[in-house]
Design goal:
The protein has a six-stranded antiparallel beta sheet, with helices on one face. It is an alpha+beta fold. The chain has four helices and six strands, in the order E-H-H-E-E-E-E-E-H-H. InterPro entries: ASHA1/2-like_C (IPR013538), START-like_dom_sf (IPR023393).
C-alpha cells in the first residue's frame, strides 16, 4: 500500500462472530443493510466479488477480489469501480471480527483511497452501512430511514453555503 488516505471504523455488535461473518458474506443479508446493493461472491481467496444494485438493472457499481477469507474472523477484499484504472492499485477493505464475551468488535479498515474526495465519501458511507448492519443483527431490522440520507442533506446544505467539506 502507498501513502494514500486510510479510513478506519470500529463498532461493537451484540452478535457472534459467525453471525457477523454471515451478514458480511450472504448476498441476501447484505441487500438488507446496504439498501440498494448487495455483495456477491463465493468468498474464496482469489475469487471476484461484485456490488450490484438490487433494482434489477444489472448494474454493478463496485468490483474486487477476495484477498483473504478466514471465517469467522477476517475478510479482506480489493474495491474499485468496474472500469476504474488506479495508478496505485485498487482500494483495500479489511473486516476484522473479534469476539469478546457475547459481543463482537468489528473493525473496518479501508486503505489506499484514491484521494481526499474518496476519503470524504467513505467516511460518510461506512458509518451508515455499519449502523444498518448493527441494527439488523441486534434487532432484526435495519434503521427506519437510511443514515446516508442525513449525510446527503448535510452535504447539500454545505454546498449551498459554498462549503465543500
Amino acid at each position: 500500500m502507498s501513502d494514500r488516505p486510510t479510513f478506519v471504523y470500529v463498532t461493537f455488535i451484540q452478535a457472534t462472530p459467525e453471525q457477523v461473518w454471515h451478514a458480511l458474506t450472504d448476498a441476501d443479508v447484505t441487500a438488507q443493510y446496504w439498501a440498494e446493493h448487495s455483495n456477491v461472491s463465493d468468498w474464496q481467496v482469489g475469487s471476484a466479488w461484485e456490488h450490484p444494485r438490487t433494482d434489477g438493472s444489472g448494474i454493478v457499481d463496485l468490483v474486487g477480489t477476495v484477498l483473504e477469507a478466514a471465517p469467522p474472523r477476517k475478510l479482506m477484499i480489493t474495491r474499485t469501480g468496474p472500469n476504474e484504472e488506479r495508478p496505485d492499485g485498487p482500494g483495500q477493505v479489511t473486516f476484522d471480527i473479534e469476539p469478546h464475551g457475547d459481543i463482537v468488535r468489528l473493525t473496518v479498515t479501508h486503505e489506499n483511497l484514491a484521494d481526499h474526495d474518496e476519503h470524504v465519501s467513505v467516511s460518510a458511507g461506512w458509518p451508515s452501512v455499519l449502523a444498518n448492519l448493527k441494527s439488523l443483527l441486534e434487532t432484526g431490522h435495519v434503521l427506519s430511514q437510511g443514515p446516508w440520507e442525513m449525510y446527503a442533506e448535510m452535504r447539500a446544505a454545505r454546498m449551498a453555503r459554498n462549503d465543500p467539506r
